Amino acid sequence: xxxxxxxxxxxxxxxxxxxxxxxxHELFGTFTAVLTLATIVAAVSDLGITQLSTKRLAASAxxxxxxxxxxxxxxxxxxxxxxxxxxxxxxxxxxxxHWLVLLGLTAAGLLFTQYTQFLxxxxxxxxRFNTDAVLSVLERVxxxxxxxxLLPLGLTLDRYVAVRVVAGLFTLLLLAGLIRRxxxxxxxxxxxxxxxxxxxxxxxxxxxxxxxxxxxxxxxxMLMLERLVSASExxxxxxxxxxxxxxxxxxxTVLPLFFARFARATGQRAEQQELLWFGQRVVTVPLLLVxxxxxxxxxLLFFQFGNSSAAExxxxxxxxxxxxxxxxxxxxxxxxxxxxTSTDHEKPVSWLVTASIALNVGLNFLLMPRYGALAGAxxxxxxxxxxxxxxxxxxxxxxxxxxxxxxxxxxxxxxxxLCAGWYxxxxxxxxPWWLETALAAxxxxxxxxxxxxxxxxxxxxxxxxxxxxxxxxx
Length: 474
Known about the structure:
single chain; mainly alpha; 2 domains; disordered C terminus; transmembrane helix
């Protein structure tokens, strides 16, 4: 199942590039803005109820029967309100007629997906992790199949939006039927108690604020590009950001593991420091090669855009290169945010991200009309630097954990050496891209050991420890 998850994400990125190329940058750019608007509002519509209910269900079995009859209609009512708010905001922003219909359908698809995530909390709380894992990728796999089926028939934007809605609705109905069969009709009974609803909303609102902040921070650029500049510029940015989102999946897979360990070690500074120094290497090193590939061979990631001009591909590549610098910043400093939020310092992190959003929006208004998608990419990267400086300042003051400054320096030197070597290969060697990348990877490995980022003794000790585990090396 883990392998399926890893395959679905890059598979979807490649296929969505094909969809974008078939539909065209002008239409897809406007659709991207519409989807972004719906996604931002959807982040608020849940009001943190999904996270809260999953946490409470895992902690208490009685929560299941006591609160679920209230949770179901409350979550449905919030979803309907979300639909109205999304379409209303779309009208205020200037979308009319057919685009308002597409906005409503897109919001409905997101609503189905969100309600599915909410109901999956029941499975997670009852430790049905295998079933939950299947459902976590079912909608995306179904959507992949439907879009592939449309390619030979003729892919249009209307059909693309329609299959997104169908995939979300099918997954939701399947999950609802499964929960009813596993836990009985009583689970799906609608019996709201307004005192319970008020209590739930009060408890979940802080989670909703965090979700809104992070949603705005990630998505606002594409909406502003389409409204302030042009749909085509929004499309170029979306094509580049899609790859950034795929690469960042590595961070969002690894960092939760450190989140749990940091949380368990709360109050134990020495253990947290050891975890931080170890995690710094685990998080950063693999992304150094990915970022360098984007900087030197980024154009290869847009091989699906057969209908785009050389100028359009160059524009997307430039956006990608700037946004991959944003990935580099996260590779170095995202683990500090994980340490802070895992040790009950969510509030300063949230305010820091909020300040970053304000800075980003201000820079967008100032620079986007002149520089378009490149301004959006540059502003995103600058804001990543801003919050990272804040993390570095907060960590020793709030947690007492020392920063691995020497390790950061060694990692920076390794990246500098990798880029210098790759530049030499690209400029003078004239090799095929795959051989060039393989040699660059070998260079990074050599630099990692030569600079002491990883020591041979550490690798040997790890291998010996693994060999001593039961069932290994016997």
